[in-house]
Amino acid sequence: MNPIAQLDYRGEVWRKLLHLFALVMPIGYHFAPRWVAVGAIFAAFCFSFFVDICRMRGWAVQRFWTPITDLIVRPKESGGFTGATHILFSGFICPLLFSLPAATLAMSTIILGDAAAALVGRRWGRHKFNHADRSWEGSLSFLAASLIPAFVIPGLPLWIGIAGAVLATAVEAFSNQIDDNLSVPLIVGLFAHLAIIMTR
Prior knowledge:
- The chain has helices spanning 9-21, 24-31, 34-57, 66-72, 83-97, 100-124, 136-146, 158-173, 180-198, and strands at 128-129, 134-135.
- It is globular, with a radius of gyration of 17 Å.
- Helix 2 runs antiparallel to helix 6 (100-124) and helix 6 runs antiparallel to helix 7 (136-146).
- The chain has a two-stranded antiparallel sheet.
- The chain has one domain.
- A hairpin with a 4-residue loop joins strand 1 and strand 2 (134-135).
- The protein is built from nine helices and two strands.
- The protein has 200 residues and is mostly helical.
């Protein structure tokens, strides 16, 4: 593992580019049969889970991918599962638990919002909160990016999309013990799912 105390900004950029690639999950919900989308995401989750286990156990097979993982894995993740594994699990479970618009919103907010918050917050975040782990600049960027899905997701009432973006921002800002790639999609997805049911 990279011994530095914090992932450098170049690593953060590569990490978030990979994070943005995860948009294939909520987009895939709409263009692939449900069992195909869920099955493909589950397979990707299993592979990511395996990679994390190999890294944590120090198995020799990890030498095939450590040149990549060392660039993007945060030091605090060295002893546990990465954000990639968490978000793939969320991408797998959300369409099984929630309606299509709710699952799409849940995944889109964390993917877009988290990327914006990390890149802006790391570079321009000056006003810190939550034990200096978050910044107002990062959280406002999260909110701005996570509002985008509210206007484009088919079948999603606009007010639910906007409320979901605000909720996602709040959950992300205060997710300390639980990875936000898990907490944000599950909480936002549940909210949107119930809100859609109540407005019918």
